[in-house]
Every structure is written in structure tokens, then in C-alpha cells.
Amino acid sequence: MTISTLPDTQKSIALLAVSKSFAAQKVLENISLTIQRGEIVALLGASGGGKSTLLNIMSGLLPADSGEILLQGVPSEKFQHWQRVAYLFQEDRLLPWRTVEQNVHFGLENSGLDAKTRRQRVAEALELVGLAEFIRHWPHQLSGGMRSRVALARSLVVQPEILLMDEPFSRLDPQTRSAMHDELLRIQHLTGMTVVLVTHDVEEAVVLADRVLILKPHPGRLHNETPLDLPRPRIATHPAVNEQIRLLRLEV
């Protein structure tokens, strides 16, 4: 699916000929892609492919050197990122001196919303991730999976249209990671968010994504894209899922 064939009303993210360098090193070269509204897309590839840099450009944290970036049909420089784009990092980045409730509230502190609306948003976000009973807990009292849920709630509290995720589950044990995969899919289904996930894990990409974009390094360029027309839930040991994992590992 290319930028030219997808109507503007269906585009969530569109990049056209985007390039980026740091000093003399080119990190991204001529990246063009389109992500549909409500789609889950995984950015997959080896280190040095520019996946995180591409995510930072989508988020507005980093400008591109050249090319065009449209978010929901609006040029990136005119897009209200803080209202409509949330970013979930590899580390949960919880503030240890704040409770669960206060950590989630942090995402709204510069929103301009009144106190009652902020409290309601926080309560809804914690309910959504299943942590309503833990609002008074401190980060050190939580398991790794619960901390990841708090970080997810902090992202969801702004009610984003686009959720960008930079390997947010990579530090979790396999069982907890699987539970977070289920949680993400459940929440995405409820909210209809567009999700862009950076990962090195082929299995994670196949389990979660509607489409996988493979980036090759030095400089980062779009090598291949693979639509995943597989029913959910996807279990890695299922023959069709396992075969897709095998094929993608040959491409990465």
C-alpha cells in the first residue's frame, strides 16, 4: 500500500522520501511509507537500521533533514503531537517519588484540562490496563509487568490517536511479555488507535502486527513489507504463525 493509493481520510502516518543524518553519518535514506488508521505496524530489523530514529521523527521529537511527514493528513510541524501522539519507551520511566496515580497523571500536567477531567482520565486509563486497585502503590511495590502497565496507562491517558512504542516489552520475562501483548491488542481493539512498534523480536512482530516493515542498516532504508493476514490470537507454535516467523527471519 503506497502513499498514492491510500485516501487521505484513511492515512494515519505518511512519510515521503524522508532522510536523516547525524554529523557525517546518514541514518535514514529515502524512507517512504504509509500507515493506515487503526493499523498495527511493526518496524523490524537489525541494529543500525534507524528504527528508533524513524519513530522519533514520527513523534515530532526529531526533525527530518529532508522529505515530508504527514500525521492524520496534517504536516508534522503543524500537528499537535502532545494531544494526539503518545510514546512508550523501552524503559518504563516511572518516577519513584510518585504513586501509580501520580505517575499516570504526569501525562496530563501540561494539557490545560481542568482537575476533575484529569482525575477522570487517570481513573479510566488505570481501569483500562487493570490497575484501578493499585492507584496508591509506589513503583517499587510493583512487578515488572505492572510497571509496564502503568507506563502504558500514562500513554493512554492523553487518549492518543497514534501510539508509538520503542521495544517497550523487551525487558520483560516471556510470560509477562505475552500477557502484555494480549493487553495491547485488547486495548487497541477497544480504542482503534494506530500503533507503531519498534522491535528486534520477529516473533513479537508476527504476534502483534497487521504489517511488518523491515529496515536494513547503514543507512537505514525500507527493505521489505509483509502484510500478516493471520487470525488472532496468534500462537507462535501454530503452523501458519511459525512459518511466517521463519520466513521473516530469512529477511531480517
TrEMBL record:
<dbReference type="InterPro" id="IPR003439">
    <property type="entry name" value="ABC_transporter-like_ATP-bd"/>
</dbReference>
<dbReference type="InterPro" id="IPR003593">
    <property type="entry name" value="AAA+_ATPase"/>
</dbReference>
<dbReference type="GO" id="GO:0005524">
    <property type="term" value="F:ATP binding"/>
</dbReference>
<comment type="similarity">
    <text>Belongs to the ABC transporter superfamily.</text>
</comment>
<keyword id="KW-0067">ATP-binding</keyword>
<dbReference type="InterPro" id="IPR027417">
    <property type="entry name" value="P-loop_NTPase"/>
</dbReference>
<dbReference type="InterPro" id="IPR017871">
    <property type="entry name" value="ABC_transporter-like_CS"/>
</dbReference>
<dbReference type="Pfam" id="PF00005">
    <property type="entry name" value="ABC_tran"/>
</dbReference>
<protein>
    <submittedName>
        <fullName>ABC transporter ATP-binding protein</fullName>
    </submittedName>
</protein>
<feature type="domain" description="ABC transporter">
    <location>
        <begin position="13"/>
        <end position="244"/>
    </location>
</feature>
<dbReference type="InterPro" id="IPR050166">
    <property type="entry name" value="ABC_transporter_ATP-bind"/>
</dbReference>
<keyword id="KW-0813">Transport</keyword>
<keyword id="KW-0547">Nucleotide-binding</keyword>
